[in-house]
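Structure tokens please, single chain.
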Amino acid sequence: MAQTIYPGLAGINIATSQIALIDGIKGELLYRGYDIRELADRVGFEEVTYLLWNDDLPNRTRLDAFSDQLSGLFALPDPVYNLLHSLPEDTQPIHAIRTAISALAAFDENPDDVSTENIHRIGTSLLAKFPTITASFERIRKGMDPVAPDPDLPVAANFLYMLTGEMPNAAATRTMDVALVLHAEHGSNASTFTARTVASSLTDVYSAITSAVASLKGPLHGGANAAVMRTLEEIGSVEGVERYVLDALAQPHGRVMGFGHRVYRVVDPRAIILKEVARHLAEESGDSKWFEMSLEMERVMDREMERQGKQIKPNVDFFSASVYRMLGFPTDTYTPLFAVARISGWMAHLFEQYADNHLMRPRLVYEGPRGRVFKPIDQR
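Here you go.
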């Protein structure tokens, strides 16, 4: 009997959720009913995380309490710092993060309890520690000592401070905050689905989040913004953009990294916001090369897609590449930056998954041989 196959589980609904609404036709993204454009413009990462983890935005008292709770959890256990120091200097940062998150379970007195209270405790700790792990390893691999977190700083500013050892200016802090908000959550993407699948066996939070980081690493998911930056570096100049795009599109199944999305059929709303962020950064820093190249690539792609009668627009990875470069981040830290933000969304989904759990068990359609006759090894 013929079986219907859904490659990549496309179009399959696995659960109901109250966290995020993605309308790919309209180009809308809502966090618990709030438009992402309004949130990115008006609130910070802590507020958005509180929103994703609860029913609504916090009032001042609740936000202050949540921020205070986070600030007390920024620091890592000393053995985890030692572990980061022990890794080879050429270790990719995302490998270091995945390793450190897994190791944190060993220093948690109660890692396996999946009660609501304990899940929230672990989630809050991980939210606080992701930036510390990322910033600490970035300094360690450059031969510098980690900078101790400042409990008086919010997440975005603290992250930049731990990277440089210097207090970030308001523009850099606001840019980092917007980037974290935009990358915090995006429905049942590959890494979120991975986290929920792993959690569905009722294993611990650390295992689920470690698996999510591993999924995020891939170039078709969290590694896409790094691929965009490598493309821009390969092209090298505004003048080389058009030839690169035309050559790429001329290839069989030709594509340009940073364009198109599995969900959005119009421009990704996050890309619109990041484009303006990149524009302001370029104007303020005077380092406009990467942004100008991005604009030219968008122009050429729009022209070529119109000729082909297609709607393939920039996604969130496209302009985030130039934003992160103008902030001074090395290309191989782009995916870790994604993880620093997405731990917010991963945990929101784990709260839902553990609260109403069903073991994930999709089926495979067998198309292999049948009725084969066994032969002893000396007759093969």
